[in-house]
Specification:
By secondary structure, the protein is an alpha/beta fold. It contains 15 helices and 15 strands. The chain has a 9-stranded mixed β-sheet with strand order 14-13-12-11-7-10-9-8-15. Strands 3-2-1-4-5-6 form a 6-stranded parallel β-sheet, sandwiched between helices. A hairpin with a 4-residue loop joins strand 9 and strand 10. The chain is globular and about 65 Å long. The chain starts with a strand and ends in a 6-residue tail after the last helix. The model has no long low-confidence stretch (mean pLDDT 95). Bound molecules: nicotinamide-adenine-dinucleotide. Nicotinamide-adenine-dinucleotide is lined by residues 8-12, 36-38, 41, 75-78, 80, 98-99, 125, 127, 183, 345.
Length: 405
């Protein structure tokens, strides 16, 4: 039986960790403490997840000293991840962190330095790797049918409701996330790195704000709850059961509004992105992200000297095109059917929970993501942000050489 503490009483902590641990992993995992800076949200999470027995803390050090956990699960706002990851390791505690591992070069260095010094273990919870469709793509590529891979073309489409949701709250500001190329695309960059066993080398990127923010909707209010001129994106407080108890009813403690206007003019991040990246071995990758798409999903084409894999997956993880296709130079086309996953994130969440809380005996495809996997994926996003600002190509290892660690 391992002892866990939850660092961050977030929505993610509730649905991905607290509730599943209580419902499915009681024989292997015990939550011995819940920490957050908002005491009301801690109590709301405990009630929703049925873990009222777990002690509450607004003092992080006190929690670690009193509970002596084996593992800390970091699920706070992105810009604070590094602080808790490092403090956990300093106290001899292993870490599971939500993505992105962190969001700046300096914070990334701090994590790598601390890990090297303490020797503790960091797992990045890249749940997308565990979606059956994504795992099947890895199997196809690993089989060698594509030959030597030379080109990857990945497009992620966030639909308007999902994409817009990032512009309602803390994700709308550079200081909290970097940009969506770090917060969201860390998933996508990790998949590409994992699928092709690749190491990113150089990036050039553009980012623009075209759809959200900038007072685009006339006479908008500060938030949906009190808006006198509601738009089609009016927030529905009753759509998601955790929203009222975890956000609306906790506002008095920290002023965190879940339903801020999508057209506010203080939003300071792009909503439209284009990235081009060169990997070691001169593999070329292009990537794009929109946050106001007409459906949700991704398209990805991976081309080698023998074959081309075409992936198209979407509509909030119910497959638009459940099969994937492999095209060969001899003209043959092979259709692969991966099967459907059940539950959040296309079944990925349940499968990663099994690995995290029951332990994996075998991991032939390398699903488990290390600290360095976390670094490689965020470095594409962080360096793309530098490229967008400075209008230049950025060499990743000039900014941070992770191979020294
Ligand atoms: N893997 C996935 O698919 C996935 C899905 C959703 C969220 N996430 C990640 O989970 C994390 C939480 O996201 P969420 O949307 O559930 O967040 P949320 O808004 O529900 O909660 C964020 C929490 O962070 C706390 N917080 C803010 N500043 C803090 C500080 N200085 N110290 C301690 N706590 C602080 C807030 O009080 C709040 O409880 C994010 O890093 C996000 O990227 C991952």
């Amino acid at each position: 039986m391992k002892k866990y503490v939850l660092v961050g009483a977030s929505g993610r902590a509730s649905m991905m960790y607290a509730k599943p641990i209580e419902e499915r992993f009681k024989d292997t995992a015990k939550i011995v403490g819940v920490f957050d800076i908002n005491p009301l949200r801690i109590e709301a999470l405990k009630k929703l997840a049925g873990i009222e027995y777990a002690p509450s803390y607004t003092d992080f050090d006190k929690m670690i000293e009193e509970q002596k956990p084996d593992i800390g699960i970091v699920t706070t706002m992105d810009s604070t991840h590094h602080e808790y990851i490092c403090r956990l390791m300093e106290k001899g505690v292993d870490v599971i962190t939500e993505k992105p591992m962190t969001n700046t070069i300096d914070r990334c260095k701090a994590i790598l330095d601390t890990q090297k010094r303490t020797g503790r273990n960091i797992t990045v919870a890249f749940n997308y790797r565990f979606i059956p469709y994504v795992t099947k793509a890895k199997e196809v590529i690993r089989s060698g049918v594509l030959g030597n891979i030379y080109n990857v073309d990945y497009e992620y489409i966030l639909n308007d409701w999902h994409g817009g949701d990032y512009f309602r709250r803390w994700h709308s500001y550079e200081k909290n996330i970097g940009s969506l190329l770090v917060h969201k695309s860390t998933h996508h960059f990790d998949l590409i790195n994992w699928w092709i066993d690749g190491t990113p080398k150089e990036v050039f990127a553009f980012g623009e704000r075209k759809f959200w923010g900038d007072d685009r909707y006339k006479d908008h209010g500060e938030r949906c709850l009190t808006c006198e001129n509601p738009c089609k994106y009016k927030y529905n407080w009753d759509a998601v059961p955790i929203d009222r108890p975890m956000y609306l009813e906790c506002e008095s403690a920290d002023g965190y509004f879940r339903d801020r206007c999508l057209y506010r003019n203080d939003i300071d991040l792009p909503d439209t992105f284009s990235v081009t990246c060169k990997y070691e071995d001169d593999i070329l990758m292009t990537y794009s992200l929109v946050t106001y798409g007409q459906y949700e999903g991704f398209r990805c084409n991976i081309t080698g000297d023998k074959g081309r894999l075409e992936l198209h997956y979407g509509d909030s993880f119910k497959s638009l095109m459940p099969e994937m296709k492999v095209y060969s130079l001899d003209g043959s086309i092979t259709v692969v059917h991966p099967g459907e996953g059940i539950g959040d994130h296309g079944g990925g969440d349940a499968r990663i929970q099994d690995m995290l809380f029951r332990g994996v005996k075998e991991d032939p495809l390398g699903h488990g993501a290390t600290c360095i996997d976390g670094v490689k994926s965020i470095m594409i996003g962080i360096c793309s942000n530098i490229s967008i600002k400075e209008g230049r190509k950025v060499v990743l290892k000039d900014e941070l050489d992770w191979t020294k660690y």
